[in-house]
Fold this sequence. Notes:
The structure is a single chain. The chain has 22 helices and 18 strands. With about 675 residues, it is α/β, with parallel strands linked by helices. The protein has four domains: about 5-130 and about 165-230, Spore Coat Polysaccharide Biosynthesis Protein SpsA, Chain A, CATH 3.90.550; about 235-415, no CATH class; about 420-430 and about 445-540, Rossmann fold; about 555-665, no CATH class. The protein is globular, with a radius of gyration of 30 Å.
Amino acid sequence: MRLSVVIVNYNVRAFLEQALLSVRKAMQGIAGEVWVVDNHSVDDSVRMVREKFPEVKLIANTGNPGFAIANNQAIRQSQGEYVLLLNPDTLVEEDTFHKCLAFMDNHPDAGALGVKLIDGSGAFLPESKRGFPSPWVAFCKTVGLSAIFSKSRLFNGYYLGHLGENETNPVDVLAGCFMFVRRAALDKSGLLDEAFFMYGEDIDLSYRIIQAGYKNYYFPETKIIHYKGESTKKGSLNYVRTFYQAMIIFTRKHFTGRRAGLFIAMLQAAIWLRAGLTLAKNFMQRIWLPLADAAVIFCGLILLKDFWAGYYYKDPDYFKTPVLWFNFPLYTAVWLLSVWLNGGYDQRYDLRRLLRGLGLGTLLLAAIYGFLELEYRPSRALLLLGAAWAALALTGLRTILHFVEFRNFRIGRDRVKNLVIVGSPAESARVTGLLNQAGVIKNLIGVAVPPGTASGEAAAAVNSASELMLEGRFSAPLLGGLGEAPLDEIVRIFRVEELIFCSKDIRAQDILTWMTRLGPSISYKIVPEESLSIIGSSSKNEPGELYTIDIRYNIAQPGQRRNKRVFDAGLCLALLATAPFWLLFSRKRTTFLKNWWPVLVSQKTWVGYASDAQNNTLPKLKPGVFSPLAGLHDLKLTEQTIARLNFLYAKDWNVWRDFEIMIRSTSAPFPPATVPPR
């Protein structure tokens, strides 16, 4: 057997499906096998592999043992002369495996091989070739010298910037997303070190392959897409900690003496530095707009104070000092809090949420105003003027920000991109249906027939489009074969901003070629054959994007998560304020007393899922005190019914749903979270 392909998957079902389809095509004519090791995904990955890829050898773990252990599980059982370690968020060209096999056969000194990696925008990924992380290399990478002097041998040893991206060369380190390894090299160097949970195992294996007397080659004559960031999320503290801890494991394993101590100290410092930068970046991304809003509102209130004092009271010094240090901060805080609770910062250009938040905040301030001491009630008119100013100023601020970002004033409306589908009329009609079902709004310019389409096939495509039009299944105009009208001309003429490639009709090799040729200014998507998902990514620093008809759970949305937490905390405070009443009269006083503190500190939630063996595919929630079974204690519910109630709760959640369940729970004679016997 020539080749064993090993893919470790964790909760990236749509990307795995596309990867396996591309692997199936690339394996044609090769005696080989494909292994998928699933690390306890909860997104139906295992079922999808079993149903759609019966030829794949599947290992379904009941936990997540990590990347290295999962790869080794399959490698030990595989039979191929060569072993390919492949990420699930990749797409390979049809001839990738053939070219890699030929190169390895012709270079017996090659222990492992890596190929040219591009991201979902068609941009080259520099980690296609890397150097070993010595203290100097790590220092240059950490402080940014590698980025500044990207072509320097001295300063960019991490990405080997002095080596051309289109030149075949021996390199130190290959990327773990695609490592084409000779079995004999694995036998000498050993399998992946299972001390690495994630990250670092590719560096360690590359190092040991060289120690075993082989070379690692960077081979750019074939390329793959790596939707970087989909297998692992890179903007988190967990990533920083895991990555640098892996580097520490590598250092302790392969360096000794003072050199090792210096390197470990540098890595420890890098952990704190990168963690601090990550925290600061994430914090500023969240806080900069509220801070700008606060500054705009507060400055406007000061100007209104001076105007109203002179215009209405004829006394520039009418308003006393408390208005500056008490009233204005209170007004600003309540308005911003109300905007936040209404999701105005989740979708910054949603004016409806912004104005609704300001309106509710004004009502709350009007209620608070009546309870204040006289010295803290300067003027109701000033409050109303401030509310009007906040609405106008924040709307204006968002209009300016929207123009800077999108170069138009269509504030509050999603910009509709000009879209061209590259594929046959039949497959394009299917893609259009997927977009409609997923609720994606695009300006469909037309359909481009795939390149290499012969004149007879092009005529057949025209006839097929005509038939589909008559049936009402296809309405987009054909833009001609790409041989007649090159795709770059179509993009330029029609100002296309997004391309969707139908992989059933166009080879992966052609897709990657066009992505590289057109560059990152276009947004690219690929729809795998017979798939319900349309996959893409606009940046190597962002996770992949999905247009899919999969279920959208309300409870999983950030704004709704926040609202649920506010409901839990608010109810805890309400229970505290009314404690004498419910301690005397409520039949649930024991339940409330027992769970009040765990809910307040977010160890529990007042309403959660009912106990159900099938709910592992739903968005995670804290353990619930009550459940959607409230009021149904006298019914013998099946597991399927309980699972359906949990599903509907997650899908349609809102604050009123929790409020309704709480009302029903307080009148139920038995604790509703207890599943009745079947």
